[in-house]
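hey can u run this one w/ MGD bound, need the structure tokens asap thx
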Amino acid sequence: MSEKAKIQDYTAPAGGWGSVHAVASILTQEEVTLLGSEILLKQNKPGGFMCVSCSWAKPAKPLPFEFCENGAKATAWEITGKTVGPQFFAQHTLSELRSWSDHQLEEQGRLTHPMRYDAARDRYVAVSWDQAFAGIGAELRKLDPRAAVMYTSGRASLETSYMYQLFGRMYGTNNFPDSSNMCHESTSVALPEVIGVPVGTVLLEDFDKTDCILFFGQNTTTNSPRMLHPLRRAAQRGFPVITFNPLRERGLERFTDPQNPIQMVLTGGTRISTQYHQLRVGGDGAALLGLCKSVIEADDAAVATKRPRVIDVAFVEQHTHGFEAFAQYCRQASWDDIQKASGLNRAAILEAAKVYASAHAVIANYGMGITQHRHGVETAKMIANLLLLRGNIGKPGAGISPVRGHSNVQGQRTVGISEKTMLVPLDRLAELYAFEPPRQDGLTTVDACEAIIKGSVKGFVSLGGNFLRAVPERSLMEPAWSKLRLSVQIATKLNRTHLVPGEVTYLLPCLGRIEIDRQASGEQAVAMEDSTACIHGSRGQRQPVADGLLSEAAIVAGLAKATLQPNPRVDWDAWVANYALVRDAIERTYPDQFKDFNKRLFQPGGFARPLGARERKWKTSTGKANFTVPKAALNPPQHGDGVFQLMTLRADGQFNTTIYNEDDRFRGVSGGRLVVFMHAGDMKDLGIAPGDLVRLSTVADDGVERSLGGLQAVSFDIPRYSIAAYYPECNNLIPLWHYAEGSKVPAAKSVPVRITREKGA
Ligand SMILES: Nc1nc2c(c(=O)[nH]1)N[C@H]1C(S)=C(S)[C@@H](COP(=O)(O)OP(=O)(O)OC[C@H]3O[C@@H](n4cnc5c(=O)[nH]c(N)nc54)[C@H](O)[C@@H]3O)O[C@H]1N2
Ligand SMILES: Nc1nc2c(c(=O)[nH]1)N[C@H]1C(S)=C(S)[C@@H](COP(=O)(O)OP(=O)(O)OC[C@H]3O[C@@H](n4cnc5c(=O)[nH]c(N)nc54)[C@H](O)[C@@H]3O)O[C@H]1N2
Ligand SMILES: [Mo]
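ok here u go:
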């Protein structure tokens, strides 16, 4: 495994030559130098392909290089010339492969043949597609559909996702957890109640109209770097950007545009954040309460002195419900409690509130630093509360902006990948396809894990992803997983989940989005939805890495045909021959959302789905936007008495469980991922020197031992009692029951742990 990591301060801005260098080196590493750079020019361009990395919006008028360092890494990783075929698997048993690192496994290259696990030889052996489909179909038919889970990672297209959910529902299950259940599900639960839509309300153009941008718990630098372009433009127009994050993330401090060599050389980057508030882990609810309280008290003072109101009274009266109760709650909250719970002082919060209250149009962005907490749903609602006070939803330049993760995770929910039946037009599906879909809610990711541990789930089909590596509670999950009757993994690259077989296990390799997808009617395009609810078409550009690979749509159709009785209303083969027919089916199912889908597929900038909240039409229980009174804003994750709050984060060199390299350039770490970032004062108190090895042990009284050793201590600019380390290495520290109330998103950003020193540097 990894050598000791090197730690060095990173002083340059994000972007710039560092990015250019990193892109060149991954293209070389993946042996795609020439072709790769040509393909990069088609990335995120109308008529080209949509990046397989993050879901940030794609502009109608793209830059010459409309990709970022990490998008280029993701492209190179997918179009690598390296392959893993039957020969590789003949040489390596799964027991042997389990000792390889995550990086080594995926670095072997693209999967090329359908394989079945042979337990006697502890190896995968090649099978034909027909054998694979027939074998899986026979197993699925033997199972109770409610004991089967159909997981989706957020990359598959709208067409594939629609086919997959229809297949599952015709089979008889609503067990459609997806990566969203570990991600922005807190958003999808919070926002419908308060603004009547499960997604963000901003469009890309709003970034050019806004006059203040807020950031809560989102690391733009690494996870959605193209977003730094509109941010830089806003910063250059002189508008404030206010960030709340326990860590000083480099891109939110300074950014250099790698498309602009002159600026890179002369100025060393544009300042992005005008205020940077390093609150304690989980302190956002309290910080937001402080912001709201400041705005309300300023408004009270304005009323008393007959000055212009601070609150947007017309908006609050006409469009909202519950204001008085919320305002009363804020007035009564004590500054002492707010300061303690947020880790920020009153002056800092007032300073931010002053800027917020003087801006006409404000955008609030947030990410996993909000959603992956026990009170993540409530904190997302607090962000909405703050925006509603000044009418910052449903007007140009303003809105709520949950920054989604996977490139099509939002779209998959839109076309029916959901375990929550209320989000799915079941009646419409029943009518269109003449079948009776199951009506009870299915399993979320956490529910599915519980059921796997209990043994009540017996079959698991995975459309992408690396489930066992991404979920909490690894030490209980791995042994339970091997008791599954059936595991089917549809994937592009080998990962750890594939190395833990069930009784019957298939590994099905698929085309990636960047590859040309040829079907009977010609080359196919697919669609996806970005973070701003705009739909884009995407065309593969590269020859498939191996003959005989099937598209995800063809694999889903193959599984469906082998499992289901024929249904004259669904011609799976016709759909695979021409994906435009699937888009027609999506339009028939969701006529308002996907009007003229095929016609608008390649509209530059994507076509925006209609969202009520954008037009101030509130599809909530009250018919208005709802203020909500928080219950736990002053009750952050507890620390002290030797207990620290651990947040598990992404490094610059990874996409989720895909580890491109062991570096985290912006945080100054290279050549190792087993590190833990700590405050110097905490290290001193515990007698830990930089470079010492420490062990983290989860504080929980359920009798399960959860600990991880061999972590190198790094002295870092982070609040006291807050510590940080990398996902997925730390996932065995997270108890399965430690999740966000209401959404069941694992609370990966606040795991209570103790720290012990193992060994000196
Ligand atoms: N290159 C790359 N791009 C990616 C991904 C990737 O792994 N690599 N993953 C994709 C996916 S699926 C997702 S969901 C997104 C994730 O993107 P992010 O939402 O940025 O997720 P994380 O990297 O987990 O970082 C969370 C941020 O929240 C901060 N934080 C942690 N706890 C708190 C807290 O209590 N309060 C506040 N205010 N901040 C906190 C951390 O310091 C960090 O800056 O990125 C997507 N894009
Ligand atoms: N501790 C902790 N845990 C976390 C998080 C955290 O911040 N901290 N974040 C959570 C979040 S936000 C998310 S979204 C989840 C992510 O969980 P997942 O979505 O399950 O995991 P990924 O790492 O994105 O999946 C990577 C695998 O997807 C496969 N793949 C890649 N491209 C394709 C494709 O085009 N088609 C198919 N079929 N397969 C493909 C490859 O085989 C690759 O190995 O993890 C969650 N887990
Ligand atoms: Mo995510």
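The pocket of molybdenum atom (ligand 3) is lined by residues 179, 183, 405-406 (CB under 6 Å). anyway lmk if its weird
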